[in-house]
Amino acid sequence: MRIEQCSFCGAPIYPGHGQIYIRNDCKLFHFCASKCRRNFGMKRNPMKLKWTKTFRKANGKELAVDSTMNFEQRRHVPVKYNRELLSDTLKVMKRVEKIKERRQLALWEKRMERAKLQEKRETASALKHNIDWIEDLEVKRTAREDLLAVQSEREAKKQARREAAKKKRTTQAKRAEVTTTSSNNNNKNKSNNNTKKSGEGKKKAVKAAGKKSK
């Protein structure tokens, strides 16, 4: 049995589940639930709904382009039954599923780094505005030290960004100078070639005039 994909949200549909809709042009649409069927009937765009897998993949929340996805592609090629091939395929499926889960976990951890940074900033701002409410002197001292550490880290990041932008500007200026010098050299070469051609043309004209006078 084949595991189908929902034509609206992209979720997997296991055997014995979901709905099938056949349009007038004999095209089949598989839906995992009546929710997807109704949204499809209302002609809603799944890319604009945050709960669909298509939206999540398009916005980098799930794996979209990965080598493990190639294993799930549909191949319209008849294959003769082979017991060894079947057992090897089942083993590979388990292995590919483990690799896919590991990569999805790595992607999730990478996404959560931004959330951790945002949470850190929010806690720092809350401490900054409400530090006088802390009665314990030891806790207040540690909170101030943490605030200073966060501020110094932020300043270091800003400085690194400024230096990177400065380097980028200098490299762009150097490239612009190189292009201007090369264009000037090309213009000089063209003008020299034109003067040479004009001189040769004058010489030919003088020779032709001399021959006519003879």
Task: Offer a quick outline of the entry.
The protein is mainly α and 214 residues long. It is built from four helices and four strands, in the order E-E-E-E-H-H-H-H. Among the domains are: 1-62, Ribosomal protein L24 (Ribosomal Protein L24e, Chain: T, Roll), CATH 2.30.170; 134-180.
Q: How would you portray this structure in words?
A:
- The protein is mainly alpha-helical and 214 residues long.
- Among the domains are: 1-62, Ribosomal protein L24 (Ribosomal Protein L24e, Chain: T), CATH 2.30.170; 134-180.
- The chain is 65% helix and 6% strand.
- It contains 4 helices and 4 strands; from the N terminus they run ββββαααα.
- It has a two-stranded antiparallel sheet. A two-stranded antiparallel sheet has the order 3-4.
- Helix 3 (83-130) crosses helix 4 (137-213).
- The longest helix has 77 residues, at 137-213.
